[in-house]
Amino acid sequence: MAQRYDIEKTPEGTWDIIDVFTGLPVVEVGVPLIDMPIEEADHLVDLLNSRDREQRDDT
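The structure corresponding to this sequence follows.
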């Protein structure tokens, strides 16, 4: 199963979480997941992909 979310480095050296299906930055609870340090982005992308897998498995 393809992973829905990935991280992308910005020109400033921070990281954004991108929805690979749309190419857009992810927004969770009204907060865009952009301009993060790599550790935070890496952790959050793992959580988002895990949640997405569970939701797709339930359908």
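Residues 5-58 form one domain.
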